[in-house]
Structure formats: C-alpha cells, structure tokens
Amino acid sequence: MQPAIQTPFTPPSVEPLARPNETPSVATSEERASIEIRQLSAWYGKKQALDDITLTIPEKQVMAIIGPSGCGKSTLIRCLNRMHEVAPHARAEGEVIMDDRNIYDPSVDPTALRRMVGMVFQRPNPFPTMSIFDNVVAGLRLTSTPRGERLEDIAERSLRRAALWEEVRDSLKRPATGLSGGQQQRLCIARALAVEPEVLLMDEPCSALDPIATLRIEELIRQLRGDITIVIVTHNMQQAARASDRTAFMLAGEERIGRLVEVGPTTTIFTNPREKQTEEYITGRFG
Amino acid sequence: MRTRTAFEKDMQTLEDDLLLEGSMVEKQIERAMTALRTLDHDLARRVIEGDKEIDRLRYQIEEHAIQLIATQQPMASDLRTIIAAINMIVDLERMGDHAEGIAKIVLMHDDQPLLKPLIDLPRMADIAAGMLHSALDAFVTRDTEAARRVCEEDDEIDQLYNQVYRELMTYMMNDPRTFDRATWLLWAAHNLERIADRATNIAERVIFMVTGRMEKINA
Description:
The structure holds two protein chains of two kinds.
Chain A: E1 33-44, E2 47-58, E3 62-66, H1 73-80, E4 90-98, E5 101-102, H2 110-116, E6 117-120, H3 132-141, H4 151-161, H5 165-168, H6 181-194, E7 199-203, H7 211-224, E8 229-233, H8 237-243, E9 246-252, E10 258-265, H9 266-271, H10 276-282
Parallel strand pairs in A: 3-8, 3-9, 6-7, 7-8
Antiparallel strand pairs in A: 1-2, 1-4, 4-5, 9-10
Chain B: H1 5-38, H2 41-72, H3 76-108, H4 120-141, H5 144-174, H6 179-211
Helix pairs in contact in B: 1-2, 1-3, 1-4, 2-3, 3-6, 4-5, 4-6, 5-6
C-alpha cells in the first residue's frame, strides 16, 4: 500500500524549508515560479524513466501533466516531493528548485519537503481506523499545531477548503471509511491541506471516481487555485482542459523514456498546439 | 495507428457537406446573373426556390457540427475545423440570400427592359464567384496563401462597385424616370459586393483553421 500521507513525520527540530512569506520576494514578474525543474532525469534501477525534463511550474496556478500511459508523468511528480526515491533502486538526477533551493540538495530533509509539497493519490486512502476528524488532523498531531491554533479550527478550515465541511460537520467522529469515494478523496485533500503545503501534487485524483464526484474535485481544484500551486497528472484530457491553467504534454519514445514534448497555456495546447505529436495525441490520433 | 476512423469519417462528411453547400451557392450566383442578364423570370423563380435547399443544408451541417462537439470532444485542428465550418456555413447561406436577392430584382422588372446592357455587373459576379471558388479550394487544400489572395481580390470588387454606383447615379440624374430600374441594378451590385465580402470571410476562416490565428485581412 502506498503511504497514506507524506507530511506527518517532521521532527520538530527540523527546520522547514523557507516559506515565501518569510523571505523577501525578489520576483518582479507577475508569474512567479513555484517549482523550477531543471534537466531532471530519473531511473528505476537501470531503466531510465525520465530524460532531461526542464519545466517551470508557476506559483498558485494549476499545471496539468498529460500523456499516454508510461510516459513518465507520475514519475515526474513523484520527483517533486522526492517520493520517487522511496521506490527500490530509484534515483533522480538534475535539479528541482523551490524557494531558491534545490530539493535534491543533501541539506534538504525529504520529510520537511513533503510537508511543503502534499500529495493526493489515485485511490482515496483515508486512514481506515480513524474518524473523519482524526484523519484531517493526522499530519498535525505528529508535528506541532501551527500558531497555537486549536485542532478543531484547523480541521474545520481544511474541510471547508476541501469543500467537504457541509457534508461532514455533524459526523466528524464517524469513521472515514463510511464516506463515499468522492468524499474520501476530498477528505484526503483536506488532510493534505491541513499542514498548509505550498504545493499539492495530484496523481490521477479522479480516476477512481464517478463523473459527479470528478466534477466536484475539479471545481475544488479551481477554488484552490490562487491559494496554492497544484500539479495534476491526468489521463483525462477533458479534465486537464477544464481544470488547469497550463498543460505539459509528455511522451515516451520506443525506448520508453519519458520526455517533455510541449508546455503552454492550456487553451493554446488544446486549440493550437505547436508540436505535431501534441496535436496527434490530443485529437486522439494515437495514444 | 489510426484510432479515430469513425470520427475522421464524420469530419470528412462535414467538409463534403460544406463544399456541397458552397457549390450550390456558386451555381445560384451564376443562375441569378443569367436570369438578370436575360430577365428570365422562370429562372429567377427557380433561384428563389433553390435557396431553400441551401438553408436546409446549412442547418443540417450546423446540427452535425454540434453533434460532433458534444460527442467527440474535438481538439486542436479538429476543433478549429468545426468552428471554421460553423462560421463558413453562415457566410455561405447569406451568399445564397444575396443570389436570391438578385433573382427578386429580376421579378421586380415585370415587363420592363433592363436599363442598360450589363457589363460591370457580370464582371463583378465572375470575380465574386471566383473568390468563393478559390476560398473553398483553399479550405480543401489548407492553403493559407491562396486564402490571402482571395482577400486581395476584394479590392477589385470594391472598385467595380464604385464604378457601377457612379454610372447609375448619372442615369438617375439625367432622367429621373430611370430611377427605379437604376436602383434595382444598384441593389444587384450591392448583393454582389456582399457576396465577395463574405468570400473573404470564408478565406479568413481558412487561415484561422490552419494557423489558429484570427486575422482580418484587407478590412
């Protein structure tokens, strides 16, 4: 089973990476980069999965990563919170810059990083033995409560941000497993938001959900935009078109190594892409 | 591997229907002008009747385009082609109306002869119908340069229209009894000028379809 959440295990002594509001902003352009991926390559043992990816992810926008199965899109986002290296014999080369620091620098603590970069997976994975409330605050209980706030307040705020509060406010003590699939996924988003990450990675977050639950998650993504940087990997091109500001298209060649083909504003990618491969993929001519 | 053969067939049908509508409009322009030149009332009535078929086809294509958008989620060049087609059929349908307008002018003449033998009007009609034909060719071949040339031809139409206007004004000033018949011919010229203008719209849509850029050429 995948680890349920990647944020809770920061020891209090570890200094979290600097947050943007704690450092004077030097950016002048309106579109500040949240994450700068530079010449990133990744391997599983001897098998190369990603080759030389360079990609800027703007702050507080939604970046969708699309591409056929096996193009390396999940590997790419797993490199953004160093989840990739958790797999046996997996490694990455290159740089991922956040807050002016390379997250692959030896001085960076991966657990501190994962507090800043939350993740939501394909299948909702609430802690099965915990109540709804305990699920939301699970990450905080293991670290410290920020700003001396009450856990109840943080839970409510997180559930509201995840557009779940109205549905669960009277059943916070009930087991999380009693919720529907779509509600469970929003609960996982609330749990990820509770530790106030700067970036939320979503790996096919709707692939196990029905269309209505899917639209609610997409709506939620649009609401969180402007507040937090979201990187969403999706097979569903319509979802990328609906929910994202920018879209990156990846493709693996015959040697099955994923490369970035094109990135641009979502409306451009879906109406007038530059590259022929992008055109063929999004018009459904292959893939 | 080709993965969307059914969709591609649908897109081809859409294009074929649009070209069919285009060729019907071309024929309508030609027949309306013949009717005007010879004041053939029967032919004029057939032109008026024929416009209904163009209208019907326009709605059929539009419905098909909506279906494709709703069921196939077209993207990129497919999306641009469908959007271009939706716009083009409106222009074609209006061109058909202008041809019908010329046919109605034939009927207005009743048993009066033409004010004068037609010289500039048939030239305008030839150029306008040629522009339409070239614009549809450019649509088939995705040729933006050919589309641009269509837009340039519109200048000649505008010049001819001004010439016709001045000539007919002279008739009216010299002999007020010619007023009705001169006005009718002016209307016919105006219809031709509009047809040419809509041909440039179609050419501009071809450029959009190929490049994704909306441009007003020769405005």
